[in-house]
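Fig. S4 source data, part A: sequence.
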Amino acid sequence: MTKNNNFPLSFFPKMMQDIMSEVCETNRFHPDFLATSIMCVASTAIGNTYCLKVTESWRERCNMFIAIVGTPGVNKSAPLTWALSPIEKKERQLYKEYLQILKEFAADEKNIGKNPPGLIKTVVSDATPEAVVQQLHKNERGILIYNDELSGFINSFQRYSKGNDEQFYLSVWSGKPVVVDRKTSVSVRINLPMLNIIGTIQPSVLEKSFQGKEDNGFFDRWLICRPVDIKKEYWSDEALNPQTKEAYDNSINRLLDLNLWTNEWGDMEPKGIAYSAKADVILKKWQKSNTDEINRSDIDSIKAIRSKIETYVHRFCLLHHLIDYACSTDYDAFTEIQDESVSESIKLCEYFIQNAILIRSADPSDSLDGIFKDLYKMLPDQDGVFTSKEFSSICLSLGIPERTGKRWLDKNTLPKGKLITKIKHGSYAKN
């Protein structure tokens, strides 16, 4: 992977950049992990309050699916926990209020036999479609699915359904209405689902979790944050200035304080913001360039990545515009999207495009660890062929039991895996 693809921190206003710099220095966070986490937290705080009017009939909100990728021990989770703290603080306060509501509900004799009210949450971990729709029904502003181990979320799809979960999340990502029909209760419909997803995952697990999910575009909709050459840091004795944390909390709280809007029929409807004329020119020039890149490429995965992340440019523009608002008391949230928002969002798109391409084109052996990585390297090069007997001899030289070696070969041979192709009985080749 290239060493030059760093998160474009200029996407954030100077005040937020200063906050992030101090937080990364005192906590030993990687800037890419913290920046990506703050993006998602800000999007969650904005929720369904605003949308971007791309055309008269095309609206985009700033929801996103994010995978924070890193090897064990590189502190992936802590930056996300830190970034989420203002929302978690509000969640704790709402829960206290909820307990009081339950107490008053139980004390009222009129409520005997009735179901108590449910807790309105912003951050959830139960990600079945039914649970998500129920929370979206309670919280029109939108919710965040946060999984410290993203692989558990992805792998749960196969546990309860046969592809239906993927289709559900594809629809939600696109902002399409979703309906869940339940046998024991009424159906629930969400007209404007606003859902962010974020979680951490190891590189060796990433490919396995998303295996088989490329063809329907599910993988291509994920923003991949994967810093290069990141290492475990030493502990830090430095303490963050409390005023720095307060400044960050105030910025996120300003987004949380944005009002939900309703239309003339009383239904929730995000307030639309349009591009300025200058911003529109810059955006269309980039879209033309990106389209040319797609048409020039002979690789389907690159075509898919560039096509899907192209949609994100509008979401990034809205996010940039409102983060600027959150960090400045003089900034008007109702103005048009300016050219700076477009320019910075284009940089961000290119960052995520390159990360996705590099992840998809990585050496297949990157997903291996320890002795099995050595085993793969000792197999003949990709143009060579090896027999079952030769494979057993290599396993023996590495101290790998014969049965363990056979299981590894079976698991990593197409169609189960991607590392090995079976040429004929007893004959194999590297992919």
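Fig. S4 source data, part B ends here. The chain has two domains: 9-360, 364-430.
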